[in-house]
Design a protein that fits this description.
Blueprint: E1 2-9, E2 12-19, H1 24-31, E3 50-53, E4 56-59, E5 72-74, H2 88-95, H3 105-120, H4 140-146, H5 157-184
Parallel strand pairs: 1-5
Antiparallel strand pairs: 1-2, 3-4, 3-5
């Protein structure tokens, strides 16, 4: 059965008539021409199709497009703030050579953006020392655990983890500066 829907992707509205069984991944790639999200396993196990759905990372191969009409969908094509500046994670992946063939890179980037938001919100992971802590320290083990749903067949993990760590440290720097300032006050 076909249904008329509207998807909001990367800040633009797209009216579509699609089969109700169409996955979000297929709608993005085949109907909207957004080829960043990749079809890897088509079973939600590799993460190549990861996009941000209302700011949270989602395997788009497991999501039906009709279920996400009112959501804000962001693909790797929409991560950059404008056409002139890359998202800090995109730049860090380049700086750290955190990709080889590049097939998994869009999903890795979207997942990393979502993961950093989860950390900022204080969500613990399976390797977090204190599940009730309000602040999560992103060490390499924590990053690996949180990114474990995204596979890289080329094994660029050795560069992906430092790329993410650098951006996480840069994001936490203003917080450290504020805390040091508060401690110095009489």
């Amino acid at each position: 059965m076909n249904l008329e829907i509207t998807l909001r992707v990367n800040g633009a509205t797209h009216p579509l008539v699609i089969d109700t069984r169409t996955t979000l991944l297929d709608a993005l790639r085949e109907r909207l021409g957004l080829t960043g999200p990749k079809k890897g396993c088509d079973h939600g196990q590799c993460g190549a199709c990861t996009v941000l759905l209302d700011g949270r990372r989602v395997n788009s191969c497991l999501a039906l497009a009709v279920a996400h009409q009112d959501a804000q969908i962001v693909t790797v094509e929409g991560l950059a703030a404008d056409g002139d500046h890359l998202h800090p994670l995109q730049q860090s992946f380049i700086d750290h050579d955190a990709f080889q063939c590049g097939y998994c890179t869009p999903g890795q980037l979207c997942s990393a953006v979502g993961m950093l938001r989860e950390v900022e919100a204080g969500w613990p992971s399976a390797v977090s020392d204190d599940l009730t802590a309000s602040h999560v320290t992103l060490d390499d083990e924590e990053i690996r655990e949180r990114m474990s749903g995204n596979l890289c067949r080329c094994a660029a993990y050795a560069n992906i983890v430092p790329a993410i760590r650098q951006v996480a440290q840069q994001a936490q720097e203003p917080l450290r500066t504020q805390q040091v300032g508060k401690e110095a006050q009489p």
